[in-house]
Amino acid sequence: MFGIHDLTLFVISGLLLNIMPGPDSLLIMARSATQGWRAGCAAALGIGAGTMVHVGAAALGLSAVLATSATAFTVVKWVGAAYIVWCGIAMLRARLNAAETGNQLYDPLGQTSHNRFNAQAALPYRKIFAQGFLTNVLNPKVALFFLAFVPQFIDAGATNKPLAFLLLGCIFNFNSMLWCNGLAIFTAFASAKLKVKPLLALWLNRATGGLFIALGARLALAEQH
After folding, report:
1. What angle do CA 22, 139, 10 make, to 5 degrees?
2. How far apart are the first and last CA of the chain?
3. pTM above 0.85, yes or no
């Protein structure tokens, strides 16, 4: 149908790939643990929107530019790496300021949390959405992934390959959103059950920031394949 084959294998492979940890999962878990499931879902929706940009670009052939142009790949790579590292540094700078705010958690990317028991990095949801979107859309490896992975499930003789690519991309993203939003809800639920204290949430934020810096450095050193 639409020149697509082995759809079941595609769905299973996509789910397994989504489960693998990466900057997207880390961002969702950090936001859910420190600000609740709605914040985690906002990050997940931003990531999904970024994924659709890659899907649309790949279907139109724009992502092929990243695969063939070393200059384009390098520019996007460095912009994406710089943004991820900047997010990581901001998370590392999050702090508890008991003297001025009654044990509220400060996040340089956002605002203070509601109280010392929540220890939330209380970013507005629109900013959390933007973080998820930019973290995903500025990663050229995601574009190259779609160019390498999706065409394997499209018949060589398909009459409308861009349409088949879009359909598979939408299926992949739908499954990704199921996983990402489930991860957001589970992380928030686990944090509530464990009654994560402000100091622990603070260090979780910082640990995620450190991982973001490492991932940004790894992206900066990535080579075009």
Report:
1. 65
2. 31
3. no
